[in-house]
Every structure is written in structure tokens, then in C-alpha cells.
Amino acid sequence: MFGDPLFIIVALACLGVALILVLGISTFGKEGRDNAMRSNKLMRWRIIAQFVAVLLILLFVYIRGQGGQ
């Protein structure tokens, strides 16, 4: 499974979501309008990245499910 290119893409997408989440949360506690705007922008990017990651997971499950029949 770890040699599967689609699995590696899915794993990288999930790691990207986690990284964006950590960066967004880290700016929540900082004061200032710029930090608030940056945090909101990161959270928007997280939602987009999370959507893409979920689509990739569904694609992976669909393709791997087809191989078993």
C-alpha cells in the first residue's frame, strides 16, 4: 500500500491539511488585525484542502474497491 502512488498523494494531502490547521491555530492566539486576517485565510485554505483530501480518499477507496471484483 505504501508503494501505491495514489495512497502517497492521499497521505500528502492529509499532511497538508494538518499543517495548514496547525499554522492557522498558531495565529489565533496572537494579537493584531493582521494575525486575525491571516488566521481566517488559513482556515479558509484548510477547508479547501480538506475538501480535496476527502475527494482523494473517496477516489482511492473507489478505485481500490473496483480491483477486488
UniProtKB/TrEMBL annotation:
The chain crosses the membrane at residues 6-25, 45-63. InterPro entries: Hypoxia_induced_domain (IPR007667). The keyword Membrane applies. Keywords: Membrane, Transmembrane, Transmembrane helix. PROSITE patterns: HIG1. Residues 1-69 form the HIG1 domain. It comes from the Bacteria. Gene3D superfamilies: 6.10.140.1320. Pfam families: HIG_1_N. This is Hypoxia induced protein conserved region. It comes from Roseovarius pacificus.
